[in-house]
């Protein structure tokens, strides 16, 4: 399915060197040894990498999404806007699967992909909001 939208091609191209660092001048933006650890919780099995090609602007796109139901991945619509070739979902273990856009809503910025035989479990979502924080007064 070709998703026709200019949003996927509208973002300006910037080489990685042009991206700004949050570090102060003279400081490294890399995390110090031991300060950053990869996430290893149960959600890691439900988060996926999404890649594809938007032919209209000859651009490869990439983003992340999450499995919310069997064979279904939700992500931002602008990630897949204009993608008409090589739409793939990759798991943390490196396995890749072909994907197809089945829902695309640019106003809500939500897309849903169908990924046949995707073995990842759906991310468990809370149905009730639990309050967190401190009440003073």
How would you summarize the topology of this molecule?
Layout: H1 7-10, E1 47-54, E2 59-69, E3 72-75, H2 77-80, E4 85-90, E5 96-98, E6 100-105, E7 110-114
Throw out a few tags for this protein.
single chain; 137 residues; mainly beta; Thrombin, subunit H; seven-stranded antiparallel beta sheet; 2 helices; 31% strand; disordered N terminus; Trypsin-like peptidase domain-containing protein; Peptidase_S1_PA_chymotrypsin; Peptidase_S1_PA
Query: What top-tier CATH class of the domain at 43-117 fits best?
Result: Mainly Beta
Helix proportion range = under 10%
Strand element count: 7
How many helices? The count is 2
Q: Give the overall form.
A: globular
| Structural class computed from helices and strand pairing | mainly beta
Element string (H = helix, E = strand):
HEEEHEEEE
Q: What is the CATH topology of the domain at 43-117? A: Thrombin, subunit H
CATH architecture of the domain at 43-117: Beta Barrel
Strand order of the largest sheet: 5-4-1-2-3-7-6
Mean pLDDT: 78
Structure description:
This is Trypsin-like peptidase domain-containing protein. The protein is mainly β and 137 residues long. 6% of the residues lie in helices and 31% in strands. The protein has a seven-stranded antiparallel β-sheet with strand order 5-4-1-2-3-7-6. Strand 2 (59-69) and strand 3 (72-75) form a beta hairpin. The longest helix has 4 residues, at 7-10. The N and C termini lie far apart (56 Å).
């Amino acid at each position: 399915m070709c998703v026709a939208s200019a949003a996927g091609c509208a973002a300006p191209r910037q080489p990685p060197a042009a991206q700004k660092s949050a570090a102060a001048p003279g400081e490294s933006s890399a995390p110090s040894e031991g300060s950053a650890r990869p996430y290893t919780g149960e959600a890691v099995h439900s988060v996926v990498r999404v890649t594809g090609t938007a032919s209209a602007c000859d651009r490869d796109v990439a983003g992340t999404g999450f499995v919310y139901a069997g064979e279904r991945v939700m992500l931002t619509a602008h990630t897949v806007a204009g993608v008409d070739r090589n739409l793939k979902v990759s798991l943390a273990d490196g396995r890749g699967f072909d994907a197809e856009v089945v829902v695309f809503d640019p106003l809500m910025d939500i897309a849903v992909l169908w990924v046949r035989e995707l073995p990842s479990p759906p991310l468990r979502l809370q149905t009730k909001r639990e309050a967190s924080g401190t009440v003073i007064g």
